[in-house]
Structures are given as C-alpha cells and as structure tokens.
Write a structure and sequence with these properties.
By secondary structure, this protein is an alpha/beta fold. The protein has 22 helices and 22 strands. The strands form 5 sheets. The protein has a 10-stranded mixed β-sheet, sandwiched between helices. It has a 4-stranded mixed β-sheet with strand order 13-12-22-21, covered by helices on one side. A 4-stranded antiparallel β-sheet has the order 15-14-16-17, covered by helices on one side. Helix 10 runs antiparallel to helix 13, helix 10 (363-377) crosses helix 14 (444-450) and helix 15 (453-466) packs across helix 19 (570-581).
C-alpha cells in the first residue's frame, strides 16, 4: 500500500469520529502533519522477515539485510536473480543492501565482521549467533526542485522495535556517490539496532546511469526502462532526444552519470537534503503514530535526532548541522568527512610540534593535483613497493612503465625536477607533501591512484561543479564501458539491468569507466591513454592537467591565466570555480555536539585538508565553547572495504568500530548527559603477517578511545592552531 493511500484511508476513518482532524486536512487550529515542501511520496513497504532466506521478495526481506542476514551479507557471492537480465525491484533492493554494506565495510570474519561489528552484534556490543534481521516498514519519497533532474531519494526505515515513548531518528546521507542505501552499514545498522527510525538519503547522488546508445535509464525503484517508458519515474535522464542522438553518433556507447551530469551541483544541497530527510522522517512517524487527539506526537523538541555517516555522508551530516537553523539535529558524528574548506587565514595545524605548511584545500584542488603527481610519486624511494599485492597495484598490473612516462612528461613540462625517474618521483612526492599529504600516505599513492580514485573524481567533480551536460566532453573526457585493452565498448545489458545494486554512482567501471576521447589512436580508458602533447602512454597527463586548470584557473605548466582560447577555457574554469564556491563549509556547528573520526593514513581525504583543518576552523568560529571533538586513528585509512585486499590487510585497521563508538558516545551524551570524549589520537596495532593472509583481528588491535587520554595522545589547541601529537 502506498503511503498516501494508507494515510488517506486512516484519515477518512478517523474523520468520521473527529471531523476536524488536522492530519486529514481539516480546519483544526491545532498542529497538523504536513508533508514537507518538495517531497513526493512513492510508497511504503513492510519488510517483515525475522529469519534469513533468499530475500527474493519483499515478504522475505527485512530493513537491514534484505532478508539474507549476517551470513548472506558476508557471503562472497551476491544473491542470485531469478532472471539476471530482468531483476525485480525487490531483488535489486536486496542486492543493493548487500553491495552497499560490503562497499563500506570489511565483510570478512578475519577483519572483524561478526565479532567487532555486524548484524549479529547487538547495540550493546554482544556477539550473538543470530542473523541480525530487523523487521519494519520502509517509506520511500523523492525530493525534487521541480526540474525533474534533482530527484533526491529518501528512504525512512521504521523498525518494529521503534518506541513511541522514546523516539529517535538517525539521519544517514550516503557515502561517496552511492544511492539511498549508501549508509546502511553505518548510520542504518547503528540506528536500527537502537530502535530508531533511520532516514537514509542519496543526497542528490545515486545510481543514475543514462545509457545514451539505447536511451535506457534507471528508474527510481532501480529497474531499467527506456526514457519514454520511464517518463517521470526516471531517476536521471541526461539529454534531450536530439542532443542524445547527435552525441551518440559522434561518441558511441557513452554513459551519462547523475552525480556528474545532473547539472545540479548536488554537493551544494547535501546538507539541505539531509535536513529534508529528517523532516520527512518526522512526517512519517506522525502519519503512522498520530491520533485524532494528538496528530503530531513527534517534534524536533521531543525526538532525538543524530546525523551520522562516513565520507561524503559525513560531510553532509556536518553541513546539515551548519545549516540547521530550526534546531532539528541534536548531535553529529562524521567519519572521515570530505570537508570543503574555504580559503582563509586565521587557523593553523601543528603536528608533532611543527607547523604544517599545506592544509585546508578543497576536494577539487587536492584531488586534481594528486591526479597529476600520484603515479609518478608512487615510484619514489619513500613510496616504492616490491611486494606482490593489491596494495602495490601499479606494480601488480604492469602500470610501472606508464607511471614512468608520467614522470617523464611532467619533467618535459617543467612540473618536476630531476634527471632520473627516481629524482623526478622524489620531487613529485615532495609536492604532494606540500599540498597536504603526509609521510603516512606515501606508500598509499600507488593503490589509490592505480585503483582509479584520482581519474574518477577529477573527471566527475569538475563536471558536477561546472554543471556541464553529458555532451560537453569537458577536458575531452567521457564515461563508457571499456574492454581489457581500454577500448570503448557497449555496456553489457545485464550490467545495466543490475546497476542499481552493483554500481556506486561513480565511473568506477561498473559498468562505466573514465574515457579520454582525445587519446592518440582513438578514445581509451584512462589507464591506457596516450597524451597528444607527449605521444606517450602516460595515463592521460594532458587530461589531468586540464582538470586541475579548471580548478585553479591557470595553466599548470606555465602558470598563465586561462583565456577564451585556452584549453580549458576561462569560461569553463569560471563555471567550475563558481560551483566549488557553493559547497564550502562554514565550520559553524551552532553549538551542536559533534565527533569527527578520521584515519591518519587516509590518502583519499588527507586529514590536513579535511578533519584537522575543519576542527581548527571550527575552533576559530565557535571558540572555546565548541562542542566538536576529533578522534584521529593511527593506521586508519579511508576504505574499510579495501581491508580484505592483500597489503591493506596487513597495514591498516578498520575505522568502523570507531564510528560505532562515536555514535554510542553521542547517544550517551544526549540521553544521559555523559561527557563527550576528549579529542585524541588512538594508537592501533595493525594485523601484520603476510599480504593477503593477515591474522584475524582482535579487540587489542583497535583499542577504544577514552574519556581522558594520556598527555601524549591529547589533541588540543595553541591559539587557533590545532595541535596533534605525532
């Protein structure tokens, strides 16, 4: 039954007894339960399962695991479809929960799944033998601005364990570019176990793939259809028919991606989308539990609301708190948040007693800069790896010659110094240090670049910030499926059909990857690109330089300002920089309690440009009255989902246990007045062993943060500079 149908039926019946019931649209002078502006309800579904099974239908699913339980989420093989070419909406939901849970967390027992965290671990930390299913109802709605291009999806999950006498809501904006279930393993699991309603949202991102060749799109429920058949149910349609046909003729098999091509700059709305999800959650609870005499039993004043998520979701949670003029949010937890720092003076960072020179840059700045230098820097003596592992991805996949060509190309353009590859690589690594990365990140540049983070984010975010359409070919870049040698091919129909469950909203190759259209000899995936200016297979140096020029407004090689005839043009750069200006944080949390957790070894979102910088800026804004606490985890990096990979397993510990502990600490603070933990460094112990066969993690590897850390672990302030111990 759809939400509006259920509410209408209930209101009609109640109106027979109480003609003036406000929730039914009557003329009562009392409070009424109003659907928040801009939100269109899609429907409500009961997911009643308490026993694990196939999860093939809604009747056999639950809110957290899609009906497959702890064992199913931990299984190496995804649940099967009855017809892989035509998966049902229920099957796609189940598999989306599977993929999104595993896309954020390490799903292996050796990494802590099932012991340190997981569906079978209770809210109190007790490890059980159960499957951890959580039955309840899920209410789906869409927030739009009237254009049909925003289409922010919200899913409010109300577990059967929700207590009307002890109401709570957890806001879970998705991490990365993921869809509505992108925070199911973080905010979702924690909140549902507490009996809270969970308001998940894709925050304007999500899996919106418009395959321009056959004109098919993802619908809001995840299934695919042609543009004409989908109509208003299309989650994202990139181009008008004439523009689509013309572009497809010139550049066959391309795929438009919602986060990059919606022309909405979705990041600017991450905070407001998160707040909208919270307001919709209150509406849902009132619609379900309200009565004739009390149509609005839940308000921001009597319902505990915590915003908590990771990565981009953490940034959205912080931004929501900054924008929360109505006092909806009571507390915030942000794990490895991508904080967009304004260019300003007045705060600083000290590490180990020494001032940090490079810090506080935006995602666009450091990502496009790193995309230029990381493959070369990975060859430096301090970064070089010899092991056979995914951590040494450049070596494992025979990319070393191309990384060397990148060093040569940089040297020819005067962008690195040195006569040898070793000298050039050392200079590239030094440039990264000056831009905010630290020695803790040195060996990580290899895998982080090789796995595509730099090329993917540099392409997507510049497109998004500048509001470029899919046919703009910004920096001669597009997205498409590619074969093993990097040639553009048609996306497999089954891959498109299952994309709602398998894709993560980026050009990570599932099914679309980053393509450089101007590669010598024909368009190629970024790994195989031959740059026109160098004639070498150098991983697309020309494209990387173009993307950073969009952000800086200058030619990286000459330092000259962009013009109307340069590549890129000044006009294109102006669009990108205007979009970046729209997403900057204020760091004013309005006195709300907040906890930031970050890994010191995070090479994707380096702490000097993000967590440390944000904490320092917040101090300058809110002063000593700030209630922000910062937990920095040694041997923590950005992707817990990478921890099963050889080389990651031996070096790093999961951040997820610290997210859960931070949520517990925020809950205790808000519910019982317990003191927030002091800002501190947590010193963990990696698992060690052989890459790919690290010993099983234990609690001793990940000691908890404490209320009163030792002096050597305390993070404090010297004036307006944050002081972080080595």
């Amino acid at each position: 039954m759809r939400v509006n149908e259920r509410v209408t039926m209930r209101c009609t019946a109640t109106a027979l007894a109480v003609a003036a019931l406000a929730a039914c649209g009557g003329g009562s002078s009392g409070p009424s339960n109003e659907l928040p502006k801009g939100i269109k309800e899609i429907g409500a579904t009961v997911y009643p399962a308490t026993t694990a099974g196939t999860g093939a239908t809604a009747a056999t699913q639950d809110l957290l695991t899609g009906g497959i339980g702890k064992t199913g989420l931990g299984a190496a093989a995804a649940p099967a479809y009855a017809d892989p070419a035509r998966p049902t909406a229920a099957e796609l939901r189940r598999n989306a929960l599977y993929s999104n849970y595993r896309g954020i967390l390490d799903p292996l027992p050796a990494g802590g799944y099932g012991t340190l965290y997981g569906p079978n671990v209770t809210a109190g930390g007790q490890v059980t033998a159960g499957e951890g299913l959580i039955p309840g109802r899920e209410y789906v709605a869409v927030l739009d601005d009237g254009s049909g291009r925003k289409q922010t999806v919200i899913a409010v999950q109300v577990p059967d364990s929700f207590s009307a006498s002890n109401p709570c809501i957890v806001l879970g904006p998705s991490s990365g570019s993921r869809g509505v279930y992108g925070a199911i393993g973080t905010a979702g699991e924690w909140g549902l176990k507490k009996g809270c309603a969970v308001a998940l949202t894709d925050a304007g991102k999500g899996v919106g793939l418009h395959n321009l060749a056959d004109d098919t799109v993802n619908q809001i429920d995840g299934t695919r259809a042609t543009r004409s058949a989908a109509g208003a149910s299309s989650f994202f349609t990139a181009l008008g028919e004439a523009a689509r046909a013309a572009y497809d003729a010139a550049f066959p098999h391309r795929i438009a991606i919602k986060h990059a091509h919606s022309q909405q700059n979705p990041e600017k709305d991450w905070g407001s989308d998160t707040l909208a999800a919270g307001r919709y959650a209150l509406y849902v609870l009132n619609a379900r539990y309200g009565t004739a005499t009390d149509p609005v039993p839940f308000t921001k004043g009597n319902t505990l609301v915590i915003a908590g998520s990771a990565s981009n979701g953490g940034a959205a949670s912080l931004r929501a708190a900054e924008q929360d003029g109505d006092g909806l949010i009571d507390g915030v937890v942000a794990s490895e948040p991508v904080t967009e720092m304004p260019t300003m003076s007045g705060y600083g960072i000290q590490f180990g007693g020494a001032a940090v020179a490079g810090y506080g840059k935006t995602l666009a700045e450091y990502t496009t800069y790193g995309n230029i230098y990381q493959p070369c820097a990975a060859l430096a003596a301090d970064a070089a790896l010899n092991e056979v592992s995914i951590y040494n991805y450049i070596g494992l996949t025979a990319m070393t010659a191309r990384a060397t060509a990148r060093c040569d190309g940089l040297a020819a353009k005067g962008l690195v110094n040195g006569a040898t590859t070793a000298e050039r690589a050392a200079d590239a690594l030094a440039k990264l240090h000056a831009y905010g990365w630290t020695a803790d990140n040195d060996t990580m540049h290899n895998a982080h670049y090789g796995l595509g983070n730099g090329p993917i984010l540099s392409a997507m975010y510049t497109m998004a910030y500048g509001r470029f359409a899919a046919d703009a070919n910004l920096c001669r870049t597009s997205f498409a499926a590619a074969n093993a040698t990097g040639d553009v091919v048609a996306a497999a129909p089954a891959a498109l059909a299952q994309s709602f469950a398998t894709a993560n909203g980026t050009a990570n190759g599932t099914p679309a990857t980053v393509v450089y259209n101007d590669s010598v000899g024909g368009a190629k995936a970024w790994q195989f690109a031959v740059s026109p200016s160098t004639g070498a297979a150098d991983l697309g140096l020309d494209n990387a330089l173009c993307q950073h020029a969009l952000v800086s407004g200058k030619d990286p090689a000459t330092g000259a300002a962009l013009t109307a005839s340069s590549t890129p043009t000044k006009a294109d750069s102006d669009k990108v920089r205007a979009g970046i200006a729209e997403v900057l944080h204020s760091a004013n949390l309005r006195g709300k309690p907040a906890i930031i957790v970050a890994g010191r070894s995070d090479a994707l979102v380096p702490v000097n440009n993000n967590a440390r910088a944000y904490t320092a800026l917040n101090r300058t804004v809110e002063g000593a009255s700030s209630k922000l606490r910062y937990i920095e985890v040694v041997n923590g990096q950005h992707f817990d989902a990478f921890l099963p990979f050889a080389g990651f397993d031996t070096r790093f510990v999961p951040l997820h246990p610290y997210f859960n502990q931070a949520m517990d600490a925020m809950w205790a603070h808000l519910k019982s007045g317990a003191a927030l933990p002091a800002s501190q460094v947590v010193r963990t112990t990696p698992r060690g062993g052989t890459p790919g066969a690290a010993p099983a993690i234990t609690a001793a590897n990940v000691p908890p943060f404490v209320a009163a850390p030792a002096a050597a672990d305390q993070i404090g302030f010297a004036g307006t500079s944050i002081t972080v111990p080595r």
